Amino acid sequence: MTSYWCERAWLGGDAVDEGVVIDVDGDRIAAVNPDVAVAPQGCVRLSGVTVPGLANSHSHAFHRALRSTTESQAGSFWTWREQMYALAERLDPDGYLALARATFAEMVLAGITLVGEFHYLHHDRGGRAYSDANRLGSVILQAASEAGVRITLLDACYLHGDGGAELAGAQRRFGDGDADRWAARVSDLAAGPTARIGAAIHSVRAVDPTAAAIVAAWAAEHGAPLHAHVSEQPAENDACRARYARTPTALLADIGAVHSRFTAVHATHLTTDDISILGTARATCCLCPTTERDLADGVGPASRLRDAGARLALGTDSNAVIDLFEEARGVELDERLVSGTRGHHSAPGLLAAATRDGYASLGWPEGGRIAPGATADFTTVGLDSVRLAGTETDHALEALVFAASATDVRNVVVAGRSIVSDGVHRDIDVARELHDAIVAVRS
Amino acid sequence: MTSYWCERAWLGGDAVDEGVVIDVDGDRIAAVNPDVAVAPQGCVRLSGVTVPGLANSHSHAFHRALRSTTESQAGSFWTWREQMYALAERLDPDGYLALARATFAEMVLAGITLVGEFHYLHHDRGGRAYSDANRLGSVILQAASEAGVRITLLDACYLHGDGGAELAGAQRRFGDGDADRWAARVSDLAAGPTARIGAAIHSVRAVDPTAAAIVAAWAAEHGAPLHAHVSEQPAENDACRARYARTPTALLADIGAVHSRFTAVHATHLTTDDISILGTARATCCLCPTTERDLADGVGPASRLRDAGARLALGTDSNAVIDLFEEARGVELDERLVSGTRGHHSAPGLLAAATRDGYASLGWPEGGRIAPGATADFTTVGLDSVRLAGTETDHALEALVFAASATDVRNVVVAGRSIVSDGVHRDIDVARELHDAIVAVRS
């Protein structure tokens, strides 16, 4: 049993509590005691504000190697994708392990305790299967374990190129041939104490409705989360309508994929009916504001989705930035930009998306909260940086969401283990490993 | 004479140079020598990327105390303004000095070497003149000097409330009564080696055309920069059109204010004619993207202004964030959000706005560049953080603009003096002073 005394902690309400003791037994929170003004002897002292561990509900770890390198050219989402494909074509298992391990370690430094890795690069060059068909999935699970982050591996089915074309170039590394082979392969992936397996339909571009139904059925059978990229770009909607006479959301709903274990990633360009479908189903919509801004996707209808009944989650997606506080405020700030008004989302609401609702969307409903029985995952943000100096308890939640950055994270506990102390990763020299891994895969 | 060896430096072109020696004599750069692969003996070694010092072309230092505190309420620019006025009403000279000194020190830590302080709070409560009429202006100049930042004090004329109403409440502290009294007062402000005086028309809301012409004439007579808030909000445009039958830009042009020493701050909601007027005049438009996003102002036509001939500069404005890299990328990223395409602004173009063009807009045309004869103001960004790990020379400028944060700034030289070394301010415990100053003015 380890006990932590938090100078301030957010227990899920509208404000932070001062003086909270968290007792941890193994990988679970055993007890939470508020109103403890002075740190009891033997407690680990956590200065600042302690919040549930942050859930990064949508990541492609290997995109980290593209950071800044795609910014010198004009273009669109689709030309950016060509640069991403060129990187995907080059990766081998050793390079991928080093890159994913360092990227996941960067996430833990940023306070992320659970990552949903949306995994579509599962084959060798030319689409050949590795001798262990899940070689790259295993690499990702190993990377997460070594980095100290909890993971849901969302293995993505990807069968077709745009317009139903055959897979070409790097895309061939994404394909299983058909959905039954995808299901057989994914069924062999092994979960663990800090790893679970989920399913993903890459998108309605890459998976036809019959195959998508097979993926959805696999997820239902396994009680697993189901994720899909949905309506990130208008062109995706146009192509889906031309081919299937309905929107991506309606198409997925028709094959039974849209339910409370479903997460629509992006959900940027939706119709009113789409919003109603997602809300009524109590589905989750995972917004990735820094990526959606970087890739010129546009601003999704986050507050309308929430008002319709959908839950919100957050993802760093392309990892051009790894900072879940910036993702959280991006939801609100980008709605301000297009609406001309403030106050669409509250700080507690955005923090719930970054914690509790992200955990649920990744199949860990017992996590993302500081409460007895919950997974012992929590993150402490210092208030002693120049960014946060002047923060008082009455607006500490607003400071976290609207002013904090990843560099303000001081301590991170995952599954009861202290992974980050005083801003330093216990096992990994993160900047050095990132540098070495990125330089290796760029050359 | 002090010599610095820069591992990499940006000398104004499309990429960084590796191995650059900067010789500094007094407060000026004496010589710049590229292609020096190994640091010569006796040189101060600057690892990372050295760029000209950053110009923060639009600041209201005291707004720093509002950071995060205004985020818990819904509303608009106009309701936010009520919270700002409540703070303005409380400030006294001692509290203002402490707050401005700490805020300017936060700026220097962020690599800012020149601040344009747009100064409208120059009277005591009730509008009474201080016994030294420039008491608060002197406080700001003292704060900048102690913080080690170069300053242009842009003293703002502010005569009327919205719709031509009499000044009320906190606004009374902004008013000189008439423009002649404003000019007499401002003529008494003393420049210094690192301080210059500029003029500002607060806005066409607060200054009638006759008075605005007097301010513009004062600036012309003194060869001083002239700034004004322009078209930040649609309501400002509507009121101006209703009253004067023209846009704010057209109105300012009619009274002779729009020229190459003029800076339009925000310039968010412009007509095609406004853009043409500003471009033809070679005026500067100072964008403040983090504030414009925070206050739900909208996204200004930055690339159209540039294409029309206007220069761009950047400001932290409300200081909800002090990070000029984030301001720079915000210009591009927010245009992506509303256009659906990428590549409106290049990294070197945005860095020029953050340096050379900001210096020019604040009346320091000899600064903002690393060149012989320029002011010896430069900033070094380390590449060893997890955010920037993996950056190579070929995309170092893109990394600075699209991925760096204020916390990556390692060294800052202003007027030949080293103010920040290894990320630490030489004279000020910045976080502590910010905390103390903010808590004092909030209570």
Description:
The structure is a homodimer of 443-residue chains. Chain A is α/β, with parallel strands linked by helices and 443 residues long. The first copy, chain A, is built from 15 helices and 16 strands. Chain A has helices at residues 77-90, 93-109, 135-147, 179-187, 209-222, 234-244, 248-254, 272-280, 289-294, 302-308, 324-339, 347-354, 356-361, 396-402, 430-442, and strands spanning 2-9, 17-25, 28-33, 44-52, 54-59, 112-119, 150-157, 195-201, 226-230, 262-266, 284-287, 311-314, 378-381, 409-414, 417-421, 424-425. An 8-stranded mixed sheet of chain A has the order 3-2-1-4-13-14-15-16, covered by helices on one side. Chain A has an 8-stranded parallel sheet with strand order 5-6-7-8-9-10-11-12. In chain A, strand 7 (150-157), helix 4 and strand 8 (195-201) form a beta-alpha-beta unit. The longest helix of chain A is centred in the first third of the chain and has 17 residues, at 93-109. The first copy, chain A, is globular, with a radius of gyration of 21 Å. Chain A starts with a strand and ends with a helix. In chain A, 62% of the residues are buried. The model of chain A has no long low-confidence stretch (mean pLDDT 97). At the A-B interface, helix 2, helix 9, helix 11, helix 14 and helix 15 of A face helix 2, helix 9, helix 11, helix 14 and helix 15 of B.
